[in-house]
Every structure is written in structure tokens, then in C-alpha cells.
Specification:
The radius of gyration is 18 Å and the shape is globular. The protein has a 4-stranded mixed beta sheet, sandwiched between helices. The protein has 8 helices and 4 strands. With 219 residues, the chain is of the alpha+beta class. It has one domain: Glutaredoxin, CATH 3.40.30.10. Strand 1, helix 1 and strand 2 form a beta-alpha-beta unit. Helices cover 49% and strands 12% of the residues. The longest helix is centred in the first third of the chain and has 18 residues.
Length: 219
């Protein structure tokens, strides 16, 4: 039986409305399956377009669609391009980021499942994950209490915690999503945690696996 490395963890820096993060979702799933008993994964939201208040115009649609087509071609992940028929959409990633922070606070062990559900709902099922009712419904489907979700999601504490995540991502030097940071925790008093980028951007699991194995084996 394998045991969890108490001094090692991964920080997954993502945004629920980042298409390359959706492309990376199968790799995250494989990491979870293979290392479930050995490795903790901490999710940090990066705030790709947090606070954006401009309606998506034709130029923005073309730019975003191009990225979706690239991700679809590179990863095979499904996309519903009917999304681009919307004429009243504001691409603000703060609400789903805050929802993820809310689920992390209320039901930590569901946070990675919630992230995957947010991705799938937005990209493959054309659901509006900037809509609070959609965010709540998806959380409830994972066993989160609806009243608690709304109470925490609408709180100033959740807004502040989400901004804190954005700052953590900046402090880690993250400039794009997804980014996976390998953390070797300090084991001696007075020493500091060691951080290293394991992955920046999209890579399939078969490329990441030997890097993970090497890092896991190192003391």
C-alpha cells in the first residue's frame, strides 16, 4: 500500500473559463487517479478575465473561438460552438472562480470534481457559469448544501478569498493557465518550502508522468 508524501503537494493554478485548462482536465484526472494515495493537490484560481464588464463583441468572439478550435484540435476535448450565438455574454471569470473558492471552503474533497464540472458545463454543455444559479446547482449536484453555498458565495469573505487566490498566483509568478507547481514542504525548522514549475500550459499526462515520477522519487 502506498502512503501519501506529507512533504510534497501540487498546486494547480487554473481558471474555470480557461479553455486550455479544460484541455488539461484529462491530465489532471490521470494525476488524481494514479497518485490519489500519495499526493495532495491544492487548487488556486488565477482570475483569467476577472472583473471584465464588456459584452463579448464579434472581435472577442473570433479571438476566443480561435483558442477553442486550437484546444479542440490539440486535445480532443469537446466544445459546443453554439456558445458564440450568444449576443449578451460578458466573459467575467470572477463568479466561477469565487464559486470554486466557495466549494473549496465548504467541501474540500469536492473541489477538483467541481472544477471539472464547471469546465464541462461551460465548454461542452454551453451553460452560463457566470450565472449564480448555475454555479449553485452544479455545487449542489456534488453534495454541497444550497443555502450554505449561497451564503458563502455572496459573502465579502469569499470575494476577499478569491482575490487572495489571484495574489497567490501572482506571487508564484504564474502568467498563464494551467500551471502546475510542485511543492517540497520544509521539513526542518527554519527552512522554507521549495517551489518549482512542473508544468506551464497544456501537456498530456504521458509527457507529465515521467516528470512527476522523478519529482516524487527525489527526497
Amino acid at each position: 500500500m502506498t502512503t501519501k508524501h506529507s512533504n510534497k503537494e501540487l498546486i494547480l493554478v487554473v481558471d474555470p473559463m480557461c479553455s486550455w485548462c479544460w484541455g488539461f482536465a484529462p491530465a489532471v484526472s490521470s494525476i488524481r487517479q494514479k497518485y490519489v494515495d500519495q499526493l495532495g493537490i491544492v487548487v488556486v484560481v488565477g482570475g483569467l478575465r476577472a472583473g471584465n464588464d464588456k459584452l463579448m463583441d464579434d472581435e472577442a468572439k473570433g479571438y476566443i473561438r480561435h483558442h477553442w478550435e486550437e484546444v479542440n484540435k490539440a486535445t480532443g476535448q469537446p466544445f459546443d460552438f453554439d456558445f458564440f450565438n450568444r449576443n449578451d455574454f460578458t466573459y467575467d471569470t470572477e463568479p466561477p472562480c469565487r464559486a470554486l473558492v466557495t466549494v473549496r471552503a465548504l467541501k474540500t474533497d469536492a473541489v477538483l470534481n467541481y472544477l471539472e464540472l464547471l469546465h464541462k458545463s461551460f465548454y461542452a454543455n454551453n451553460q452560463d457559469i457566470t450565472d449564480t444559479s448555475v454555479l449553485a446547482s452544479l455545487a449542489v449536484s456534488l453534495g454541497v448544501d444550497p443555502r450554505q453555498f449561497m451564503e458563502v458565495f455572496e459573502s465579502e469573505e469569499a470575494r476577499a478569498a478569491t482575490l487572495d487566490d489571484f495574489q497567490v498566483a501572482r506571487n508564484l509568478g504564474v502568467t498563464g493557465f494551467p500551471t502546475v507547481v510542485a511543492v517540497d514542504k520544509a521539513t526542518d525548522e527554519g527552512s522554507e518550502n521549495q517551489y518549482a514549475y512542473l508544468n506551464v500550459g497544456y501537456r498530456p499526462f504521458e509527457v507529465l508522468e515521467p516528470l512527476l515520477e522523478e519529482w516524487m522519487a527525489a527526497e
